[in-house]
Amino acid sequence: MQRERAAARTGPDRESPRNVSASALDGVVVPFASTVPATKRRATMAETTSSFSHWNKHARQWQHVKAPLRPCAEDLALIVEALARHFPDRATLNGLLLGVTPELAENRWAHVLRLVAVDNTLAMIQGVWPKDDEHRHAICGDWLQLPLNDASMDVALIDGGLPAMSFPDAYRQLATQLHRVLKPGGLFVTRIFARPENAETVGNVLAALQSRQIGNFHILKWRLAMALQGDDASTGVRLDDIWRYIDKHCGQHAGLAQMTGWPIEEIGTIDAYRGSSAIYQFPSVGELVGAFGAKLDCVEEKRCTYELAERFPTLVFRKTAAP
Ligand SMILES: C[S@@+](CC[C@H](N)C(=O)[O-])C[C@H]1O[C@@H](n2cnc3c(N)ncnc32)[C@H](O)[C@@H]1O
User: Fold this and answer.
1) Which residues of 9-45 are buried (b: 16+ CB within 10 A; e: fewer)?
2) Whether residue 162 is found in the same domain as residue 232
3) CA angle, corner 216, sides to 215 and 218, nearest 5?
4) Domain span at residue 268?
5) Which protein residue has the closest C-alpha to ligand 1 atom 3?
6) Lowest mean pLDDT among 40-49, 197-206, 263-272
7) Rounded CA gap, 199 and 110, in Å?
8) Which of 119, 125, 178 is the best mutation target for the ligand 1 pocket, counting ligand atoms within 8 Å of the beta carbon and taking the most?
9) N or C, where is the chain less crowded by C-beta within 10 Å?
10) The pairing of beta strand 237-238 with beta strand 92-98
11) Best substitution site from 143, 144, 279 to test ligand 1's pocket, by max atoms within 8 Å of Cβ?
12) Is residue 220 assigned to a domain?
């Protein structure tokens, strides 16, 4: 399988830094990063033709994308509690958001969070990110080449974005980047998409669908994606293969909607995967923690109570003292 990964696009992007409300960026963004608001930029060729094109499609249908791809109130509460526990004496925190998760951008935090979001899909920034303001600012860039100063962040957050990264190599690169930009003692808090220790079979998922034991389309999609991958995270699953499997075995959108009562618009979100050669990889919790290795130390693992929540735990990592 040919893997396509997004090219770095944080390099010198020499637009002049005008019209910028810079307060969320002060002292944390490297000088070469574009400070022209990403909400106002035009996409470059790299941004419009990247393997993340399914994110371009998702950007147009985000209101139909639901949990668990998006975090629910219970997930958000875990993050708020983690920050309150680990930074009890701090009023203001510098936060890095990997992705543009609006629920995190708009959340009411116990701290004043000065948030810099980094995402490589301009359509997601322009379509999903809430407006920049004095406390939050989005930058178009790659997580593996973060356009941020060393030791500038108290905390880094990512909600469910890791499956898009090559396992384990890109995980190691991300750990190195986060270790670089976090301050000593800084935290990385992430809700992950982890396969179970022993993958379930696709037959098992289809049987659960037939007997109406699956609560919504989004749960079906992730169960099938993980089952199609199986136990070996290094192989992953191609997004187009997920689309094809659902199309062939679960009925077309109208049939599946009729059988289950699920909104057809939510079922239709799977079309973002059609023809995509991007690959998702699902390591187990243990494999993922191992890949972050010496740079990030896992200090907490919390789980919610919703359907399939055991596969979407929130992990808290602390930057290690390693060089
Ligand atoms: C944070 S993740 C997962 C979705 C998430 N749960 C949410 O609610 O937004 C999705 C985002 O990650 C971005 N992304 C994926 N890989 C990336 C990378 N290597 N660098 C920058 N952005 C990336 C995509 O463009 C997309 O907007």
Assistant:
1) bbeebeeeeeeeeeebbeebbeeebbbbbbbebebee
2) no
3) 130
4) 202-280
5) 161
6) 40-49
7) 38
8) 119
9) C
10) unpaired
11) 143
12) yes
Question: Do residue 254 and residue 176 come from a single domain?
Answer: no
- Which residues fall within 8 angstroms of residue 193, CB to CB, at 6 or more apart? 68, 160, 162, 163, 222, 226, 282, 311, 312
Residue 221 lies in a domain: yes
184 falls within a domain: yes
Residue 4: both structure tokens together? 């396509």
Same-domain status, 111 and 208: no
Q: Are residues 235 and 253 in the same domain?
A: yes
Write the CATH number for 105.
Answer: 3.40.50.150
Instruction: Please state the atom number of ligand 1 nearest to the C-alpha of residue 6.
Output: 19
- Nearest atom, ligand 1, residue 124 CA: 27
53, 181: one domain: yes
- pLDDT per residue as tens digits for the range 90-123: 999 999 999 999 999 999 898 889 999 999 999 9
**pTM listed for this prediction:** 0.89
What residue ranges line ligand 1, CB within 6 angstroms? 6, 52, 55, 69-70, 99-101, 119-121, 124, 142-144, 158-161, 164
Kindly state whether residue 11 falls inside one of the protein's structural domains: no
CA distance 323 to 320: 8
Indicate if 105 and 207 belong to the same structural domain.
no
